[in-house]
Prior knowledge:
By secondary structure, the protein is an all-alpha fold. Helix content is 88%, strand content 0%. The termini are far apart.
Amino acid sequence: YEKRLDSELAEIVDERLExxxxxxxxxxxxxxxxxxxxILVAQFxxxxxxxxxxxxxxNPGSSKS
Length: 65
């Protein structure tokens, strides 16, 4: 009975270690994806600002509200 409990405990420890590695990997992957998305949003904002300025230059009589 004690051997079986020891064996089950060892399996639980192994599963916990595997889970911790999966969590670490997922956290890393999500951080990379978030950073990439953040960079992309900044690029879109810069493009939007550029286009806004270009359109404003084409119509100098129009004022921004």
